[in-house]
Amino acid sequence: MSISRKFTEEQLRSSITHACKKLKIDKPYKQQEICLLSYLRGHDLIVALPTSAGKSLIFEAAPFCWDYLHKIASRGTDQSVSCTTDIPERHSALVVSPLKSLMNTQVAELTEKGINAVALLKETTSDIYADIGRGKYSIIFASPEILQKKGPSLLSNPVFRERVCGIFVDEVHVVKQWGHDGGSTKAFRQDYALLSELRSLVPSKVPVCALTATATSETISVITTSLALKDTALFTESPDRENIKLVVYHTKETDPAITFNWLADELKEKGKECDRHIVYCRSHNDCTKLYGFFEKQIGRFSNRLEQTYAMYHATTDKKVQDAVIDSFRNPDGSIRVLFATTAFGMGVDVKQVYTIIHYGPPKSISEYVQESGRAGRDKKESTSLLIHYTGSTSKSKCDKNMKDFLKVDNKCRRELILQHFNVEKGEWALQQHRCCDICSKQCKCNGETCGEKKALCETSVTEQTPRIESTVVHQREVNQVHREQLHQRLNTYREYCLLVEECKDNHLYSGKDIASGVPRKTLDKVVQECNLELNFEQFNKRYTLFDTNHARHIWDIIQDVVGNCNRLPGHEEEESRDITISMAIDIDPHIDDHDEDSEEELTLQAIIHSSSDSESD
To answer: Is residue 234's pLDDT more than 90?
Structure first.
């Protein structure tokens, strides 16, 4: 960026108008324009604006603003240029982004608008880097890890050094969360702490801009140091979103299938007419459990375009990630319930989501605000429900502020969040029942009572099915040979399930555990506990198997290998068969009772009753 002259206020504003036209935007919000003007005057920026405030416009508009100003400078006149004039694209914004999926989404959105954008990934070819060196792209996304490897050579390229108009660190709050050691815990992504090195590789007048929705004073201090910011303009607004009610629900229930039974019923009844819900889970395992439970209750979809529930985390196949994001960018998208880790939603303009459920508390208040802020981006009334179940704080590794937030039972939750970010409460027009669960208890908007109609998630989560009472069971004696035989037979069965026609390629979308219907962790647990004498009903309730047919087959394998277990209900007496079928329908309504064994069933029986050793007479 070689422009050294100063521009008038009118010219700077005209450059923003030009950039908005390139991006097919009518005009910027007031705060967006203020931030852009400060950036164009040469300041480094820290921008902490609420979710849905449109922070990405700052880096998207930057190169086109400078293209416009370069045109003015090349004319050697103070006159502005008409925005209809053909203005060459001469500048590039370098955007540091935390997630591959986020980069891919932003590139896709910009490409749809006719903007040359690219994401630098591990698989990026040398041809792409050559195109960057020739000045093909206006916006370039990269992770800190890629920039540590490729940044020096890229930023030493004379053409790129001339073009680069700013380094923009998106979702910059992760610099503190991921880039620095925490006591005895090593940094999750150490390269985030090395971003200041980029500053030495670009011309000194190139601004560095940090963008986030949440930043405490401590986080701002860490960001300033980590990015080597100077002459910094700080723009902050309250992270509070008044249209989102904050609710915390405490429960001893630890089984996600029981906790979310109401949502499965709602989705099963309404299908694509069901309101959208994002359920944030604290682990891939919780995502998988909930996905499997919904698959058991609702069934699989042969056409992925018709699927009404999905999951999204770092190891989800890219095709599925793209499909999920596309669905949520579309108000009429088919996916109505999503089980996701906190990665989902960063930088994505999710449409018509009015319910966020946190299954277990996030690690920090900042993460909680980030996740909650994915609801109600169109300013409509929404609800953020945090389900705090026994043991979930240690599972999530919550910090002290998050734990204190959960413990409070007599103070407004919204006020606690504002205090965390050192923001004054100010004047609210909120009725108490729209503020939080604590204020809601004190609301008397209807005289002596509250007239609020609560959101479905608030009323339904308290109406859970009671847990199954614990049962005393006998133990049987098994040896290591039994366990090894059982392990081998169960793995053979699982591999078979992946080969049948209806499961082919499904593991690309959901992973092998769900595609087969037989999670590996469940098989390991079955082998470990094969000394327990469980009847079939106890067995089916104890283990996570997405189809009662799988439970029957695995039960048969256990009988064959271990022996001395109760016979499977329904194998002999007609009276027992009636009871068994009734139970099966309660557990899985999609089971069919076939009169004849198919070729597939005969193959199954061969697997179930095959013996590792030849039987003696």
So the answer is: yes
Contact 104, 119 (CB under 8 A): yes
Distances (CA, A) of 362 to 262, 365, 385, 534, 580: 23, 7, 12, 37, 42
Nearest-5° Cα angle at 309, 317 to 549? 90
DSSP assignment string, 242-256: TTEEEEEEEES---H
Sheet with 117-120: strands ordered across: 117-120, 139-142, 92-96, 164-169, 208-212, 44-48, 232-236
What tokens does 452 get?
A: 């609020």
Compute the distance between CA of residue 497 and CA of residue 557 in angstroms, rounded to an integer.
Answer: 14
- Closest residue by Cα to residue 44 from 177, 189, 172: 172
The pLDDT value recorded for residue 277 is 97
Structure tokens at 77: 């006149």
Tokens of 499: 């080969």
Polymer length in residues for the chain: 617
Does the pLDDT value for residue 93 go beyond 90?
Answer: yes
DSSP 8-state secondary structure symbol assigned to residue 377: T
Distances (CA, A) of 502 to 71, 462, 499, 544: 60, 37, 8, 20
Q: How many CB atoms lie within 10 A of CB 48?
A: 25
Q: Are 228 and 63 in contact (CB under 8 A)?
A: no
Q: What pLDDT is recorded for position 614?
A: 37
CA dist 98 and 192 (Å) reads 9
Which tokens in the block code for residue 180? 């620095």
| pLDDT band, residue 539 (cuts 50/70/90) | confident
Pick 2 or 442 by higher pLDDT.
442
Q: What is the pTM of this model?
A: 0.72
pLDDT (0 to 100) of residue 200: 87
pLDDT band of residue 568 (cuts 50, 70, 90) is very low
- Confirm if 320 and 506 have CB atoms less than 8 A apart: no
Higher pLDDT: 395 or 112? It is 112
Q: Measured over all CA atoms, what is the biggest interatomic distance in the chain, rounded to whole angstroms?
A: 104
Contact 221, 46 (CB under 8 A): no
589-617 confidence digits (pLDDT tens): 222 333 333 434 444 444 444 544 433 33
CB 275 within 8 A of CB 285: no
Domains along the sequence of the chain with CATH: 9-236 (3.40.50.300), 244-460 (3.40.50.300), 475-609 (no CATH)
Per-residue pLDDT band for 185 (boundaries 50, 70, 90) equals low
Residue 551: CB atoms within 10 A of its CB come to 24
Residue 46 to residue 98: CA distance in whole angstroms: 17
Which residue blocks in 29-167 are alpha helix, DSSP H? 30-40, 56-75, 100-112, 126-133, 144-155, 158-163
Closest CA to 92 of 225, 207, 1: 1
Single-letter code of the amino acid located at 363:
K
Annotate 509-559 with DSSP letters as a single string.
HH-HHHHHT--HHHHHHHHHTTTEE--HHHHHHHS--S-HHHHHHHHHHHH
Query: Under the phi-then-psi rule, with left for phi > 0, alpha for psi from -120 to 50, and beta for the rest, what region is 133?
Result: alpha
pLDDT at 262: 93
515 versus 442: the higher-pLDDT residue is: 442
* Chain CA centroid to CA 327, Å: 14
Q: How far apart are CA 146 and CA 150, in angstroms?
A: 6
Residue 468 binned pLDDT confidence (cut-offs 50, 70, 90): very low
